[in-house]
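About this split. The held-out portion is used to measure sequence recovery: a designer receives only the structure tokens and must propose an amino acid at every position. Recovery is the fraction of positions where the proposal matches the reference. Here is one held-out target exactly as it appears in the evaluation file.
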């Protein structure tokens, strides 16, 4: 029956083509999707199959994509309430708020591709296996993956721009709206391509997330004021071109053309202070550079994976079979019977059971339960069952073990129902109270406390390197505050990550959840828009943000008592007065920040211990 199917016919024709080079000229169909060219499939059918598979995988993970777009809408609505249209006026003070909102939009779209890391990492093992079996080259996976992500990038950019552009009161011209939409769309697709590239290089999902976050931090650092020998980092960052394009698109609008006292428009004056020497033509150059950067990112991802060939190579090959360097021989079989030898391990096990000799290495750990499924022993056996014997001999009333007896027979005798009734003891209760029983509370406590030495060492290394490098004030008081603030910050972020994992059914959902929380923290920390400028009914979000207290402790401890005068918006002010009036950082309230920083790790650790015990996402 099988020999009459179409699949058998196609297979037999492919076999004949490999054996006889002239067969393909007479029998091979030109439009067959299973047309074999040496080691590869036809490129058209291969691309169709990869596109169909990628689309199927995306539908299977539709919850993650919907959840990711939903959280983008939620953050956009929150951003609208922070940068209220009625509070945003056109002047030099509010120009910083406009710039902060543009920067936050870039951060939000850049981090939205974080969920692609675990998704891509989970698919790579199958890709490598199929690639090594010559199913298709690596680019046949990268191209469909990049193409199918374009609609999602466009959707996210449209959702964000449509909700925030006119609500924040950017320039009302329609062409500027579409300019910003194009810039954010390209940035989002670059972030997705970057996630694919990092996942293909690092491959481990957890390490890939850490590496991607480190890459984003480097991009943020390179977007600031840099020495001359580091300017190359400024120009290779995708975030740089996004900021240049978005800022020029906004601050070259007609409403920013008011001439200031310095004989320059407000838009030009602001751009000179943030990006000197930029011209209007930069935005068109920026678009082209973004397009080129996106293409190079996708090509780099395709080139990173070893591949068999390209579509051009396939099309250029002659449509004929392979000429074998030897005379082919046809072999036929009749009444074929297969036999499988008995595994060596099975023979050894049968030999052991027959001779009743000990089994070293076959049984290391034993779980012993009584009727009802209650555990009375779970742990290592030890050499010659020494640990098992020692545990039961420590129970009062249990007879001692005789060296000439079988440990298994002795264990069954002393733990039977009659032995329990004679001793008047419950072995399950005794096990729960013993040192062998690791309770969930003890395990959760270990998971929390084991992080403290590691974070302590991490903080010590960070402070030792950065404090003298940044050239902070050389004071033991300020250095201790810097170390304390950094230690508490790293500790509560570590516990917060553990809490997010305990609240999520999968690693992918945890990645999306943490990206949501981190971007909300970025919005309410106070450096994108100062805390006193946040609407009063929204200020509670500012006070519950953990990063607010970290910045209060870090900045106030270093500069809250400095009376040196600086120029702020054209007016002389002391540093301490500027921190009070603009950011709301009071040096006399430094103790409150220290107490909150001490409490945050405890809150997150207790929440993790509670939810890891109460929530269970396993399905049986």
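Reference sequence for scoring:
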């Amino acid at each position: 029956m099988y020999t009459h199917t179409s699949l058998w016919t196609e297979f037999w024709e492919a076999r004949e083509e490999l054996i006889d080079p002239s067969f393909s000229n007479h029998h091979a169909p030109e439009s067959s999707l299973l047309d074999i060219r040496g080691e590869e499939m036809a490129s058209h059918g291969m691309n169709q199959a990869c596109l169909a598979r990628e689309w199927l995988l995306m539908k299977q993970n539709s919850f993650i994509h919907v959840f990711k777009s939903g959280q983008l809408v939620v953050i956009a609505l929150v951003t609208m309430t922070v940068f209220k249209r009625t509070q945003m006026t056109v002047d030099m003070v509010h120009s910083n708020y406009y710039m902060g909102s543009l920067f936050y939009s870039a951060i939000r779209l850049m981090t939205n591709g974080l969920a692609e890391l675990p998704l891509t990492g989970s698919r790579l093992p199958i890709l490598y296996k199929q690639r090594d079996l010559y199913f298709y080259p690596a680019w046949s996976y990268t191209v469909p993956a990049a193409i199918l992500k374009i609609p999602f990038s466009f959707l996210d950019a449209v959702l964000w721009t449509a909700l925030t552009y006119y609500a924040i009161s950017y320039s009302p011209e329609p062409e500027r709206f579409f300019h910003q939409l194009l810039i954010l769309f390209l940035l989002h697709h670059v972030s997705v391509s970057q996630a694919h590239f990092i996942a293909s290089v690092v491959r481990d999902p957890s390490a890939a997330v850490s590496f991607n976050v480190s890459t984003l931090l480097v991009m943020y650092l390179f977007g600031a004021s840099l020495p001359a020998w580091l300017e190359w980092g400024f120009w290779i960052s995708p975030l740089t071109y996004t900021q240049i394009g978005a800022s020029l698109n906004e601050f070259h609008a007609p409403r920013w053309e008011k001439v200031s006292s310095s004989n320059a428009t407000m838009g030009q004056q602001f751009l000179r202070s943030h990006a000197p020497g930029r011209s209007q033509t930069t935005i068109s150059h920026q678009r082209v550079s973004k397009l080129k950067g996106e293409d190079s990112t996708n090509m780099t991802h395709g080139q990173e994976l070893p591949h068999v060939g390209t579509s051009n190579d396939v099309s250029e090959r002659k449509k004929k079979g392979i000429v074998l360097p030897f005379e082919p021989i046809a072999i036929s079989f009749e009444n074929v019977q297969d036999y499988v030898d008995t595994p060596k391990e099975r023979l050894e096990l049968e030999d052991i059971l027959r001779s009743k000799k000990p089994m070293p290495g076959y049984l290391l750990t034993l779980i012993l339960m009584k009727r009802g499924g209650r555990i009375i022993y779970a742990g290592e056996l030890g050499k010659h069952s020494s640990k098992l014997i020692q545990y039961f001999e420590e129970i009062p009333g249990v007879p001692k073990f005789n060296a000439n007896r079988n440990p298994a027979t002795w264990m069954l005798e002393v733990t039977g129902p009659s032995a329990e009734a004679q001793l008047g003891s419950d072995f399950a209760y005794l096990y729960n109270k013993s040192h062998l029983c690791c309770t969930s509370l003890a395990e959760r406590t270990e998971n929390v406390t084991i992080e403290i030495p590691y974070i302590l060492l991490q903080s010590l290394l960070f402070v030792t390197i950065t404090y003298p490098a940044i050239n902070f004030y050389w004071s033991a008081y300020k250095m201790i505050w810097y170390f304390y603030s950094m230690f508490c910050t790293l500790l509560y972020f570590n516990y917060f990550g553990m809490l997010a994992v305990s609240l999520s059914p999968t690693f992918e959902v945890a990645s999306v959840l943490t990206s949501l929380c981190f971007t909300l923290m970025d919005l309410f920390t106070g450096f994108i828009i100062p805390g006193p400028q946040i609407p009063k009914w929204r200020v509670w979000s500012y006070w519950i943000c953990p990063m607010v207290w970290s910045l209060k402790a870090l900045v106030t401890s270093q500069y809250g008592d400095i009376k040196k005068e600086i120029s702020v918006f054209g007016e002389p002010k002391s540093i301490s007065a500027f921190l009070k009036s603009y950011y709301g950082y009071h040096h006399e309230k430094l103790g409150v920040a220290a107490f909150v920083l001490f409490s945050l790790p405890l809150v997150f650790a207790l929440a993790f211990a509670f939810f890891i015990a109460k929530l269970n996402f396993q399905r049986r």
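Annotator remark: The CA atoms of residues 114 and 195 lie 7 Å apart.
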